[in-house]
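Predict the assembly for these two chains.
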Amino acid sequence: DVKVTQSSRYLVKRTGEKVFLECVQDMDHENMFWYRQDPGLGLRLIYFSYDVKMKEKGDIPEGYSVSREKKERFSLILESASTNQTSMYLCASSGDREKETQYFGPGTRLLVL
Amino acid sequence: GEDVEQSLFLSVREGDSSVINCTYTDSSSTYLYWYKQEPGAGLQLLTYIFSNMDMKQDQRLTVLLNKKDKHLSLRIADTQTGDSAIYFCAESIWRDDKIIFGKGTRLHILP
């Protein structure tokens, strides 16, 4: 079974803090994704990565950056958290052999005060 | 442009069938998916259908695809309280590695 884990289920941060969200997958998947999920807006793609050290902007990259130093790990970074970044963050991964199918982590609910 | 539309809410009595509908706009979609999200959890891949298929059945789940109308549906037979969740329709496009998600349909089960 594919396993995608996220470092925290719940996180509370203050405005201006730097925030790291970590995602790890154990299936040697090449592709990893970060989404945020907000009521009424569904899932929106923030960033994705096809390979180590590679990153591509998604639909809403502003205010975020990412890091992929190892194949199994994809980090989402909020350089200076703002209240409008309060959201549920979902990580996903997919393998090149089954590129179309993404497997999701449990999500991190971030509250920025 | 790429767009996936689904109604936001569906209420069904326990034991009845639930039918969740979805429409998409891109005719070059390759796979169409249904994901389930239970409260406080991530998205779980429920089932998917390749775009050259009309129907796929998996136990209580039936997926119907009308490619001409770009309409996808998920039927859950004998709906149980454990089926209460948000169901996301999604499509992948052959020329792109991203998946486009709908906004999700919240399925509410009445006793």
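Chain A touches chain B through 25 residues (CB under 8 Å). The CA atoms of residues 31 and 99 of chain A lie 8 Å apart.
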